[in-house]
Amino acid sequence: MDGAYLGQAEPQEVGEGLRQVLQSARRDEVRWCGMLIKAIQARRETPSTRTGDFFAKTMAIDGLAARLAFLNRGQEWVVRRLRHLIPRLPESLLQEELGEMLSSHEHNIAEMQNQLLVLATEGDRSRT
């Protein structure tokens, strides 16, 4: 489980399905960051170590479901950017890798949507 994804979530709040989805998304995040770093370095550039404020924004959100929905919107932003960028690239290994990154993000979004439905269903049951 990753603190950047869950923040203050208690272990009992996170079922096995959600834990697996989060672990998979975290592995993908590491994979795609590595791929992007290598692509930048292959162009004899230096990747920035600067990060945005997404983590702080995520941590400021109360509630596990709301935090996960926000994370999914972040994944959707990446998908939109990739869909815009990929067709503009010349045929290359980078275009292929970014296509794989796009597919991976789309898969992660769908899996998280399923888990958000599970959380909502569990919440509905606990209120009745």
Number of strands: 0
Low-confidence stretches: 1-5
Name the beta content range.
under 5%
**How many angstroms separate the termini?**
29 Å
What is the typical, i.e. mean, pLDDT?
A: 87
Number of domains: 1
Q: What string, H for helix and E for strand, traces the elements in order?
A: HHHHH
Radius of gyration: 17 Å
| Structural class label | mainly alpha
Classify the oligomer. single chain
Helices, by number, come to 5
Biggest pleated-sheet summary: none
Shape: elongated
Measured as a percent range, the helix fraction is over 70%
Structure write-up:
Residues 12-111 form the DUF6306 domain. Residues 95-122 form a coiled coil. InterPro entries: DUF6306. This is DUF6306 domain-containing protein. The chain has 128 residues and is mainly alpha-helical. It has one domain. The protein contains five helices and no strands. The longest helix is centred in the C-terminal third of the chain and has 35 residues, at 93-127. Mean pLDDT is 87; it is low at 1-5.
